[in-house]
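Minutes, methods subgroup
Present: GH (chair), OT, SY

1. OT presented the first of two proteins processed in the latest run. Sequence and structure tokens recorded below as shown on screen.
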Amino acid sequence: MRALLLRPLPWAAAPGPALSWIGDERIAISAVPPARTVAGLAEQGVTHVVNCRPRAQVRWSGDLAAERAAFGPGRVAHAPMQDHGLRQRPAAWAAAACFAARVLEDQPQAGVLIHCTAGRRRSAMVAYAVLRLRGHDRARAAALVLSYRRQAQLVPAYVRSVERWLGRRG
């Protein structure tokens, strides 16, 4: 297994969130990038973004608007979720997970950044869902997320949400 690959955001004046690229999957997980640094994400290989922050937070901070301005609305998906540790409704995140999986399937040069506020729980869940959609079994998807994003936590209720949703699709 490849070593953890962290790519710092060199353009940020203060230390910014590091992107954790998940092996060769072209999926990165991070904390929310400050709005002033979003345009520089492309330099790190990001072509598409999945923002997993709640509506109120993205309105207040402007991160979703900055991402849509930098990448274009068709390259940014929003999965508005609260981090409460309980079941996550697929209506909040499933379309974004499908978006990311489709981009990775259709565009061999694409790199998808999935972020929440801290880059630990919601973004890890959506990355796990994308990996599952891309054919990885439960154990492999979990191992990829947890080994490449050291601070990630796969909340059991969140993983069950993904697995239930996948079970209903199949």
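2. SY then presented the second protein from the same run.
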Amino acid sequence: MKVLLIKDVYKLGRAGEVKKVAAGYGRNYLIPNGFAIPATSGSMQQAERIKVKATELRAALNEELSDIAEVLSGKTLNYAVKAGETGHLYGSVSSEDIVAEIEAKFEIELEKRQVETEPIRQLGTYTVPVHLTMDLVPEITVIVHREGEAPGEVEPEVEPEVSETQPQVETPEDLEDFDEESPEDEVLEENLETEE
């Protein structure tokens, strides 16, 4: 199904563009929500007008939201969570949690779909883009750390234990012992001689 976008649609295209989409997506989402109209010969004549008008609206919206983009750009959000020994969380930090934290800290209301991230299920530092408009995408840093630890605190690395079954060579004299023939080598040589 071909549709003419009458509004910018994130990850699909800008207003005035003709896009081929799945029939269900077009009929059930884009058209009823006013994002697109069916691409007919009559609607195609409006495409250029829609494109010009959308460019003007986009410029005004970018100017209006540029202050919000400056506030969010480079900010850091910390989440103290419960996690297992491997760093896997006993839950997750979702885009809803990030939206709620932004609203609490910066008094900026966003929609869940504007924060593009999969649920975070591992300790670490993540860069999360916030889509204000198609052109304004500030990035925030999300630090997920274990409860009781400071954000960014690195866990001490555990030294690997040496197995007792592995021989440990410490000096050059020990290396000489390995060059000498072992009793098994003598038995092997004798067996070879008797077979000949």
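Chair's summary of item 2: Residues 63 and 118 are 29 Å apart (CA to CA).
Next meeting: continue with the remaining queue.
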